[in-house]
């Protein structure tokens, strides 16, 4: 690591990084109703690992040479050019791991575009936004995160055929359409009454 310049040292004297991290953590925990600090720590560790993996993939050599030709080259026993083999191996690794990482994060709704560069922008908040109560609020099933969190814990929400009472569950993009109210939920009936959408047959 390089030595800090004089002006950088002066700036650092005025910044308490531990205090900043603590405030950031409190802000995220409060906004997304994280009941346990360990949840924030867990998300933070995952984000760090994703960024580290992404940076490692970005450093791998890449070329615009046709990948299929390169793969054939790696299988050619007569090829003795080690640099070509290394480049080919790097491309295969980058393609395979990169695609799996990107597709997984995209399907989870953590990133909006299928680009490796998007993985470097991931924050703890991106994981928090995929928590069940937050997704429910974004779907306008309830008005705010606090109510959504409470209704989940009280067993009023189903994902597919299962009642989910754990607010920490992460919802993928494909699972969003399967979120619904539990049959006979008093909260759902109350909300329907408020909006004038009561269907008595539904609550028989």
Automatic annotation (TrEMBL):
Which superkingdom is the protein from? Eukaryota
State one molecular function term (GO): RNA folding chaperone
RNA-binding S4 domain: residues covered:
130-195
Q: Which UniProt keywords apply?
A: Nucleus, Ribonucleoprotein, Ribosome biogenesis, RNA-binding
Q: Where's it found, cell-wise? A: Nucleus, Nucleolus
What sections of the protein cross the membrane? Answer: none
Classification via CDD domains: S4
Q: Report any one BP term from Gene Ontology.
A: ribosomal small subunit biogenesis
- Record keywords: Nuclease included? no
One cellular component term from this protein's GO annotations in UniProt: small-subunit processome
List, alphabetically, the SUPFAM superfamilies matched: Alpha-L RNA-binding motif (SSF55174)
**Alphabetized PANTHER family for the sequence:** 30S 40S RIBOSOMAL PROTEIN, U3 SMALL NUCLEOLAR RIBONUCLEOPROTEIN PROTEIN IMP3
Family per record: Belongs to the universal ribosomal protein uS4 family.
Q: What is the name listed in the Swiss-Prot or TrEMBL entry for this protein? A: IMP3
Q: Which organism is it from?
A: Ecytonucleospora hepatopenaei
